[in-house]
Amino acid sequence: MPLSEISVKAPATSANIGSGFDVFGLALDAPTDKVTMVQTTAGLKIQVFGFLAETISVVPEKNTAGVVANLMLQEFSLKTGLSITIEKGIWPSKGLGSSAASAAAVAYGLNHMFNLKLSNEQLVQFAAKGEVASAGYEHADNVAAAVCGDFVIVKSYNPMEIICLKAPSDMECCVAFPHIITPTHKTEKARLVVPRMVPLEKLVYNIGQAAALVSGFATGDVELIGKSMHDSIIEPARANLIPGYLKVKENALNAGACGVTISGAGPAVIAVVNKKQNVAAKVAVAMKEGFKSAGCEATAFVTKPGKGVSIIEK
Question: How many domains does the chain have?
Answer without folding.
Answer: 2
